[in-house]
Each structure stands twice: as structure tokens, then as C-alpha cells.
Amino acid sequence: MAVIAHVVLRGVTKAQYDAVREATGWLEDTPTGGLAHLTWWEGEDCHSCDAWESEDAFAAFGETRLGPAIGKVGVEAEPEVTFHPAHEVFVPQVLTIT
Length: 98
Known about the structure:
By secondary structure, the chain is of the alpha+beta class. It contains 2 helices and 4 strands; from the N terminus they run βαββαβ.
């Protein structure tokens, strides 16, 4: 079942986020099961809202790509993840705005 993951990285800057995103290769090699990704800041905290095919797909990405990328870049924040069952995931086009 598809899920929505709300991920918070407390105290992560935009430059750190960009470095992690680059290290994960998300834009060049979409992770298996990754459907959509949106990011914004509230104060000093980075928030992302992702749609995934399943919690297992997100966990695999976290273990094989996100975790190592966070360590490589030197980000000390632990991702805080809250999952919600997706009622609908609609992605009308592939589009990247950075």
C-alpha cells in the first residue's frame, strides 16, 4: 500500500540538504518505490513529504542510500519520520524545480 512519509531533519541547512540529495542520487536515479518528493523549511528545520509505494521501499532507501549519504555529508540530525496511508498519489508529470 502506498504511504506518505513526512520527514523532518532538525537544524539542517539548505546547503546540507542539497549535499545529501546529491549524495543519494535521487534526481539521477529515482529510488525503487519512490513516487514523489517535496521539501520546505519551517524555521531551522527541513521538512520533506514523500510518496512511496510502501514503508518497506522507504526503509530500503533509508538503509542503502539516505543513511550513508547523511553520514558522508556529516549531517548529525536523525530523520524523524511519520507515515500516513496514502489515499491518493497523483503525479501528472516529471518535473524538478530547485
